[in-house]
Amino acid sequence: MAPAAELVDATKTYGQVQALKGVSFSIEPGSLVAMLGPNGAGETTSINLLLGLRKPTSGKAFIFGADPRDLTTRQRFGAMLQESGVPELLKVIELIDLFRSYYPRPLGTQRVVDLVGLRDKQDTQVRDLSGGQRQRLYFALAVCGDPEILFLDEPTVGMDVEGRRIFLDAIRDFAAGGKTVLLTTHYLEEADELAERVIVIDHGTLVADGSPQDIKSRVAGKKISFTSQARLEASVFDALPINSSHVSDHHVVLMTSEPEAVLRELFNRGVDVANLEVRGADLEEAFLSLTGGTG
Amino acid sequence: MNRTLRMLVMQTRAEMVRFWRVPVFGFFSIGLPLIIFTFFGLKEATHPISPNLSVTVGTYVMASMAAYAVGNVMVFSFGMALAVERGQKQDRLLRASPLPPAIYLLAKVINAVLFGLLALVVLFVFAHFAASVNLGANQWVTLTARLLLGSIPFIGLGLGFGYLAGPNSAPAVINFVYLPIAFASGIFIPVSQLPDFIRSLAPYLPLNPFVQLGWNAIGVPTDRSVTTNALYLVAYSIGFFLLAVWAYRRDQSLKFS
User: Which of A9, B55, B82, B198 satisfies CB 3.0 to 4.6 Å to A59 for a cystine?
Assistant: First the structure.
């Protein structure tokens, strides 16, 4: 059986910018996969190639082994895009009914409305919806055709905590029926909570692909920062178990997965340390450590 | 119901609902021709336009406004709607959906034709009661049919505008092009009263053969035959649709390549 979605050595260049530099992965039918990366790392470009919204500069994109640009292929997926709009003057229920008519075997209108929790807003025009309600409407449009695979590009952006809760449940419900879901996110917790597999993309290349536990152990870094009165030579940090270092003026930032060892060694070497702070790296920083610190 | 037909019905319905909810569009396509008609068509409405013709001033102005209204509906409904849809990036989600582009376009055409027809009926009823315009049944039908069929080039022009103009500038750009052409084509003022250089240009403007088809339908002698006027419009259709296809491809290659 063909993979639900597949990129084969895909590259994408926009003018001078190389957004994807040869990415390959395939998504098995029935799996829930999260694509993780900092902004502009290439996840959205990957989704756009898989949806046929962009053509790969080289390489291929397949949905169930077929060209995503074919109308028959498009009946098999639903999509929630980061940058897209719908007619502002239509009511929620009118828009859902309209999109349902595009698919051969759509879900019932009321079922869709309930799935996304918009029953009390179904007669509201799109322009009067809040940001979170709008996201849920886009989700409704993505699932209303009962697609086999669902693409969600940063679905929870702009949602409050409660909205996000409802939303993640809805995604889980959908996936529980044997469907395939590929979503992008900036949040490691979200990927961890939802997905059984995480693909990490940075600077247009695939840097990690594994279970959430696997990824977490690799990016679970600490950030050590301090100031120093003395002028520090880069050699001060030689042979320390650090992933990256950054020195500007008298301010030092070190990324490491062994903060205790690093600190012990710094004190041993007699480095002048003030305003010391050690905390868990946020995702952006964790990526820097994953990709070797060349931000 | 057949699935394709159902899709077309739903898509057309959505197009129509959107237009009804924008009062300003209804005003431009239905109200404005009526207002201009009251300026030019009500004074001495029942007098013949020239001593040797039975066509009244009211009838003549009504036919002119009818051409103006239908052309206006086509250029605006395609140009404006597309520019706005592009501005709001509605095309991205549609592009990822299984809606066939032909159905999308056909729904827009049906919506525009129905709107054009409505604008005509409102104008005709108003002219009938306010300016005692009376035509034979076949003349009403001929006038309506010619204007709706003859409006095809203006769909092409509207599509071209829709893919070239930005969402905010579209209304201004379309008016800037359409209104002067309407004037120079003799729709508001007879061509004979226009400055010489415009008079020599008038026969070659797209609205001139169009309004001549309308005048001819109500019994006004025109300087070109119906066939010649129709051929002019066919040529304009080809030109404008080529422009639209070029603009469409340009837009698509910017966004989806």
Answer: A9
- Amino acid code (one letter) for B168: N
User: Cα separation of A287 and A200, whole Å?
Assistant: 9
Closest Cα in chain B, distance from residue A109 (Å): 14
Distance from CA of B21 to the nearest CA of A (A): 7
Nearest Cα to Cα of residue B49 among B38, B39, B61, B36:
B61
* CA-based nearest residue to A48, from B14, B95, B45: B95
CB contact under 8 A, B257 and A54: yes
ipTM: 0.89
Q: What is the pLDDT along chain A (295 residues), one digit of tens a residue?
A: 789 999 999 999 988 888 999 999 999 999 999 998 877 789 999 999 999 999 999 999 999 999 999 999 999 999 999 888 999 999 999 999 999 999 999 999 999 999 888 999 999 999 999 888 899 999 999 999 999 999 999 888 877 787 788 888 888 888 888 899 999 988 777 888 889 999 989 889 998 898 887 777 666 677 888 988 877 777 778 888 887 788 887 888 888 878 888 889 888 888 888 889 887 766 556 666 566 544 3
Cβ of B11 within 8 Å of Cβ of A98? The answer is: yes
A208 Cα to chain B: minimum distance (Å): 28
State whether B89 and A84 contact (CB < 8 Å).
Answer: yes
Distance from C-alpha of A105 to C-alpha of B7, rounded to nearest angstrom = 13
